[in-house]
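Protein modeling request. Please complete all fields; requests missing the sequence field cannot be processed.
Requester role: graduate student
Desired output: 3D structure, token encoding
Chains: 1
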Amino acid sequence: MAPLVAVKQDFITLMNTLNIAGKAYNSRLLVGTGKYKDFAQTRAAIDASGAEIITVAIRRTNIGQNTGEPSLLDFLPPEKFTYLPNTAGCYSADDAIRTLRLARELLDGHKLVKLEVLGDPTTLYPNMIETLKAAEVLVKDGFDVMVYCSDDPIIAKQLEEIGCCAIMPLASLIGSGMGILNPWNLQIIIDNAKVPVLVDAGVGTASDAAIAMELGCDGVLMNTAIATARNPILMASAMKKAIEAGRDAYLAGRMPKKLYSASPSSPTNGLIA
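Delivered output (273 residues):
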């Protein structure tokens, strides 16, 4: 390969790589493992999505804590996938910290985790006071913390300064499928972050994922949009393509929007009289 071509290829590879806590991933789509009809469908959807990082709700999914029951580890081996234990169902910092310490034991010292501390069971909106408390303890305890948060740019920056390795603001409420309701706040968070920013929660269909990537997000995490689709495997494939298309569009740089200023696609000079 010619030197210039090799450098160009290395640059393209670098721009398409997601780096989390010192490890590089080819896929920018992170997928949850809940709400599928069984573990076999979970594996099929994950394969179709191309995801390398998969989230696991420690309080709801068996990864060895329930002996004698089917384990997710048998269908999605940790040698092939990076597990991201999360604290779904936790409503206090103490519960979240305890849950992730259990996950570390179950997964042989695994450090990469997703922190979420919920405010109420109706909206599942994050309790940011408890989230900040938990994040500070977990970072000091040696965890690599990817944190679910509101789309408040000030809170997002505080979480980064605490030492979280990725900031994951919601697009809209968990499981709502409403898509990105506040792209302006997301843009502020993206523009000011020095760590990866991933949209987490609210994605409903492929266009939502593409929009997140076009804004400049480093990735998207989703579960319900795939697992509750009429055809989860097909939706997983669609989400994979949307993430890739959105990322390419972001790197390409879209044309500026021009209100009341049309521009013809064809040349205007040299017209036949």
